[in-house]
Amino acid sequence: MASHPLNLMLRFLLEIAAIAAVGIWGWKLGVSWDRFLWALLLPVFLMTVWGVFAVPEDPSRSGNAPVPVAGWLRMLLELGVFTSATWVLYDLGFLLSSMIFAGICLLHYITSYDRVIWLLKR
User: Fold this and answer.
1) How would you write the pLDDT of the chain (122 residues) with one tens digit per residue?
2) 53 vs 18, 27, 80, 92, CA distance in Å?
3) Bridge partners for 73 per DSSP
4) Residues 6+ apart with CB under 8 A from 3
5) What backbone torsions phi and psi does residue 62 show, to the nearest 5 degrees?
6) Which helix (H) or strand (E) holds 60?
7) SS3 category, 54
8) Cβ proximity of 84 and 18 under 8 Å
9) How open is the CA angle 12-98-59, to the nearest 5 degrees?
10) Membrane-crossing residues (predicted)?
11) What does the domain layout of the chain look like in residue ranges?
12) What is the Cα gyration radius of the chain?
């Protein structure tokens, strides 16, 4: 189920939403010119971490792992990214959006139970 195109699209949309939320939070975090810096660097950092650290032969990704990591570590990284995005939305004052985002993330991982088990066994 984790490799189903709809589930992959959902995870991609969750990634994009997390990146956008962190960028907006970075903008709010800054005071003047550094707003641009935070709004750019935080999403770039998030995208780099997400794209570089991977489990080799992950069927839901390209299979490439620029920096191979254990499955439990990848799972922890993904949960960290989505939890951070949930918290960022809450901190920005979007309580309902943060709850919806967290719920959709939970739904994604429930429907991807086969991938979660695979990651935890790797």
Assistant:
1) 567 888 889 999 999 999 999 999 999 988 889 999 999 999 999 999 998 998 988 877 776 778 999 999 999 999 999 999 999 999 999 999 999 999 999 999 999 999 899 999 98
2) 17, 26, 13, 28
3) none
4) 59, 60, 115
5) -70, -15
6) none
7) strand
8) yes
9) 25
10) 12-30, 36-55, 94-113
11) 5-121
12) 15
**SS3 call for 68:** strand
With CA atoms as reference, report the closest residue to 105 among 81, 121, 88, 122: 81
* Position 80, amino acid: G
Which stretch of DSSP H or E encloses residue 67? Answer: strand 67-68
Residue 46 tokens, joined: 């998030």
Tokens of 13: 């949309």
Residues composing the chain = 122
